[in-house]
Amino acid sequence: YMDRYEVTNDEMVRVMQWAYDNGRVSTTIQNLQGDQQELLDLDDPESAMAWAQRAFEIGPERYWPNMAMLLVSQRQGDEEAGLRYAEKVLELGYQSSKALRVLRDRALGQDEPDAARAVYAETTPELFQSPPRTNEVNFFKAIDLAYVLREMGDEEAAGILLEGASEFVMGQTRSGPSGVYFSDIEVLAMQGEVETALETLEQAVESD
Q: pLDDT by residue (tens digit) across 53-107?
């Protein structure tokens, strides 16, 4: 099937998740003697961290190992390490919203909103056009920038960005490579639609 038809990442993830949930595949490998060895315990954060660290040792100049280490650092509460990995991700040429958010939060934590705004002015200048050009690639950044602009007191500009981002997050798939996760709820809350945001969150939890 895989060598005859194009399959998106999201489709592959859903198929593998269904297979795992229904006992068709596991995270173990079986050798010719029938012995099994667990490759990755999906319920063990320490196991995931060990794999991320090993990946970084093999490819310290690659995007995914640095991104994995960024997530590990955040889980461990190591802000300095997280900042280093975020800067490395950007240095490698990937404008990851997660990496940009680390730089944004650092600047805001140091009471430097202008520096936080500059993070996005340098990487997503289209969001500073009039009107901003929000699309399916930069909507995460638009939401994050809106938070910065609100901190600076520019409610109008923040509202315009949120309105543009809402087009790409409302009613979309939450999980997977192209998922919006809880961005729709974040937009609703920032727009003052608190009750709707809570109802949407409850629906998301119930459907999980």
A: 888 888 899 998 899 899 889 888 999 999 999 999 999 999 999 999 999 999 9
Is residue 58 a contact partner of residue 65, using CB atoms and an 8 Å limit?
yes
Tokens of 9: 């990442």
Q: Is 96 helix (H, G, I), strand (E, B) or coil?
A: coil
Q: Could you tell me which residues come within 8 angstroms of residue 64 by beta carbon, excluding any fewer than 6 positions away?
A: 55
Q: Which of 67, 64, 126 minimizes the C-alpha distance to 102?
A: 67
Structure confidence by residue, pLDDT tens digits, 111-153? 999 999 999 999 999 999 999 999 999 999 999 999 999 999 9
**Could you tell me how far CA 45 lies from the centroid of its own chain?**
18
What gap in Å lies between CA 48 and CA 40, rounded to an integer? 7
Quick one: tokens of 6?
Answer: 């194009």
Which residues fall within 8 angstroms of residue 127, CB to CB, at 6 or more apart?
A: 120, 133, 134, 138, 141, 142, 145, 161
- The answer to whether the beta carbons of residues 158 and 149 sit under 8 Å apart is yes
First-to-last C-alpha distance (Å) of the chain: 29
How does pLDDT run across 142-170, given as a tens digit for each residue? 999 999 999 999 999 999 999 999 999 99
Q: How far is CA 202 from CA 48, 70, 133, 157, in A?
A: 29, 29, 31, 29
